[in-house]
Amino acid sequence: MASTVPTDHAAVAYDATAPFYDSLTRQDDYTVFGDVLESLIKRADPPGVRLLDAGCGTGRSTAAFAERGFEPTGVDISPAMIDIARAKHGHTGIEFHVHDIRLPFEHGGPYDVVLCMSDIANYLADKAHLGEALASLGSVLRPGGVLVFDANTARGYQLMRESHVFDSEDLHAVLRGRFLPEDGDPHRFQLTMDAFRRTGPEANTWTRESVQHLQRHHSPAEFADLLDAAGLELLGAHGLERTGTLSDSLDEDRHTKGLYLAVRRTAA
């Protein structure tokens, strides 16, 4: 069946979000999450340090892993996000490219590690698109290479149905989501963000952007099946909390996020 998901919906959403994305995520602790991710990566023992940050956004995570001794390249589907990444981190020598991870990679590789964080898997709002992306990411990994990605859980989406408010001196954002059964897929989810942003020197000069983010809840079983089809072996699915606490197993009804670890199979 043909997909009903617009192919560029994530690019549209993040081009609109890019001007205030770093303000919106300024409370994210990259040190804590970096420690968790690096621990998982080392546990899987990748063959080297070449790293692809797939869905790199404004490049904060890419630069953070360069500081940890990896040799990263960043890609993102949003040209506006990549423009910011290049402006902020271009002096480091890190390469950033606009790329849709469902498509074959033309930027370097093979890689020893692929990171695909910040709900990127959920933005693949069609199961077929998720399968295409996992196959593409798997193909750019060396045998024994490591893939780490996160995804929102059933509990995470239930909580996102409630209004969430982010407030700072220059940004006020309200987020609220709902499932889209009328879209033909009961697991598809729309997150609406109304952002009010100070854009001028005067205290009362604000602009408003209303941005629609389309996602899909993919179950752990779906991930396992699609990873296997992509030639990747699932090593673990962990429950991830915003505090950085990592559980040995994933409970969709308790954890808000899942963190998945897989490796590319080596030849028999």
Automatic annotation (TrEMBL):
This is Methyltransferase domain-containing protein. Residues 52-145 form the Methyltransferase domain. It comes from Kitasatospora cystarginea. CDD domains: AdoMet_MTases. The lineage of its organism: Bacteria, Bacillati, Actinomycetota, Actinomycetes, Kitasatosporales. It comes from the Bacteria.
